[in-house]
Write a structure and sequence with these properties.
This protein is an alpha+beta fold and 580 residues long. The chain has 15 helices and 24 strands. The chain is 26% helix and 24% strand. α3 runs antiparallel to α5 and α10 runs parallel beside α11.
Length: 580
């Protein structure tokens, strides 16, 4: 440290054998108190680490309790050989206390700091300031700071310019539910927190900036999931002018590969990452968020069962999954898989075991025609001892159900390779889909460029049109979506017309882009990988709240500060609001 202060000359975690015989002062929290028959040992912890303090005089221990803050002065000595602690960096030295001063007293703790991750989440979040003292939780937040700093440095090196976009914005008619903010100056009018900087970053490209990025806060009134924080999240938002899809991919590959290599010792997919069309992902993996660490593949065998005598398969979409060496599993294992299938809405889960002579054993076998067995073995690459699972349902449901079975089997058999980060791009999303009433609607981002441009919009069936839209997926978690933007006003008007919007509606709802695109818009494209989700993967946490300093709970409440809260009648009057 550059100068001494009243509380410490050294950090707890920096003392080494080179400091032996020095008089030092450290400050921190009392992590542990141990009585060894007249000699007391204190573990003192600060942000940088832990050091052991030896206390010979009991008067020093007045008012001392676990998690109180202290400043300790004393002499650094070498630990006896049998008391060395190799688990901590300061494990070969200790401080023999000459003076201890309590700086902040501590009441009885609601939970033990070292085991806080095992405590109920509502209690942890109520006392988050204590939970954050847990080394693992603390380290997650340190990693977050370092990762964001790394992203900034990397994007700047790549020629991107960091620009902040507004937090007070306007309500978006598309996408998730907005957080609304009433205006004091404009009665009956509302701001909204931005769901993403989407419009602003496109306007920056029209403004002549070539490459933009920011660590952008985004606000969506959505329900929580394990990989989605309610209320707010952060993303590495970036956009590029005069760019094609592959330019965005190259930028994403460079920054994501570097980031995952920097913050993990696991094997990371080397650029270029795999490009998997949406249709192929749904067929082969049963999801547009495939976990490529899972070796199981789904095959389409619908044509084999068009006229089958087996009613559950007849004229259905039928998928098969070959599971290597699974025939030896117990009856209970197969029963548990069937119970899982029923729990996700399937009527049952058919399978056959492949015998040594390559014949089949299982209830589905009797419904197979001559030649079907050989065909199934060829399609699935089956070998003796394998199991072939069958999933049959509607065209819409069968792929998703097959994907869930694929994941469940791999998890139960521990087939997932935990030593890797497998990244891929999912490409070629459909531009449109039909809603429950058969009406044409946008599948995802309405501002994406349709593949084939105006010609595709004029000549193709809407559900056959693909968009230049893409996601980036890592280990089954969607990190980002993105697109080549539709910068051509004529194509945009036609694209919205197909989805039932008049030009007047387009002009009114999206007037900023509508006006901007009249004045020379460059082709532009971008994406926005989620910072919180990256951290969740890198920290190997199951829940995204573990990598956020002060997260809301799953019910969108801040248990620490008590929000959302009621406000006074005067506050409501100022913004012209009356509670109904």
């Amino acid at each position: 440290m550059a100068r001494e202060n009243a509380y410490r000359t050294h950090y707890c975690g920096e003392l080494r054998e080179s400091d032996i015989n020095k008089n030092v002062r450290v400050a921190g929290w009392i992590e542990n108190i141990r009585d060894h028959g007249g000699v007391m040992f204190l573990d003192v912890r600060d942000h940088y680490g832990v050091v052991q303090v030896v206390v010979h005089d009991e008067k020093f221990l007045e008012n001392i309790s676990k998690e109180c803050t202290v400043t300790v002065s004393g002499n650094v000595t070498k630990r006896d050989e049998d008391t060395v602690n190799p688990k901590i960096a300061t494990g070969t030295v200790e401080i023999h206390a000459k003076d201890i001063t309590v700086l902040g007293k501590a009441q009885t703790l609601p939970f033990e700091i070292q085991t806080s991750k095992e405590v109920r989440e509502d209690v942890r979040l109520k006392y988050r300031f204590l939970d954050l003292r847990n080394k693992k939780v603390h380290d997650n937040i340190v990693m977050r700071a370092k990762l964001i700093s790394f992203l900034r440095q990397k994007m700047t090196e790549m020629g991107f310019l960091e620009i902040q976009t507004p937090i007070l914005s306007c309500s978006s008619p598309e996408g998730a539910r907005d957080y609304l903010i009433p205006s004091r100056k404009h009665k009956g009018m509302f701001y909204a927190l931005p769901q993403a900087p989407q419009i602003f970053k496109q306007l920056l490209m029209v403004s002549g900036f070539d490459k933009y990025f920011q660590i952008a806060p985004c606000f969506r009134d959505e329900d929580a999931r394990a990989d989605r924080s309610p209320g707010e999240f952060y993303q590495l938002d970036f956009e590029m002018s005069f760019a094609e899809q592959e330019d965005v991919f190259a930028a994403a590959e460079e920054v994501l590969y570097a980031t995952f290599k920097e913050f993990s010792n696991k094997e990371v997919s080397k650029p270029p990452f795999r490009r998997i069309p949406f249709a192929e992902a749904m067929l082969t993996y049963g999801t547009d968020k495939p976990d490529l660490r899972n070796p199981l593949l789904i095959k389409d065998i619908s044509d084999m069962f068009v006229e089958t005598d087996f009613a559950p398969f007849r004229k259905k979409t039928v998928r098969s999954i070959n599971v290597p060496n699974a025939a030896a599993q117990s009856k209970k294992w197969f029963k548990n898989m069937e119970e899982f299938a029923l729990s996700i809405g399937m009527k049952g889960l058919g399978y056959v075991k492949v015998r040594e002579d390559m014949t089949f054993d299982g209830p589905i076998d009797k419904f197979l025609k001559e030649g079907d067995r050989e065909k199934l073995i060829e399609i699935n690459g089956s070998k003796a001892g394998d199991v072939i699972y069958f999933i049959a349902d509607s065209k819409e449901l069968a792929p998703k159900l097959a994907g869930q079975i694929r994941t469940e089997v791999a998890n139960r058999l521990k087939l997932i390779d935990e030593s890797k980060f497998e990244l891929c791009f999912i490409t070629d999303f459909p531009m449109y889909e039909l809603d429950e009433d058969g009406k044409v609607i946008f599948t995802h981002n309405p501002f994406s460029m349709p593949q084939g441009g105006m010609q595709a919009l004029l000549e193709k069936e809407p559900t056959e049109i693909l968009a230049y839209q893409y996601d980036i997926v890592c280990n089954g978690v969607e990190l980002s979506s993105g697109a080549v933007r539709n910068h051509d006003l004529d194509i945009m008007v036609k694209a919205f017309e197909i989805a039932g919007y008049s030009e007047e509606e387009l002009k009114n709802k999206f007037k900023s882009l509508y006006n901007a695109f009249k004045y020379g818009a460059p082709p532009h494209a971008g994406m926005a990988p989620g910072v919180d989700r990256m951290l969740m993967l890198l920290a190997e946490e199951e829940n995204i709240r573990e990598v956020i300093a002060f997260p809301m709970n799953s019910n969108a409440q801040d248990l620490l500060l008590g929000s959302p809260t009621e406000v006074t009648e005067q506050q409501l009057r100022e913004v012209h609001i009356k509670i109904r």
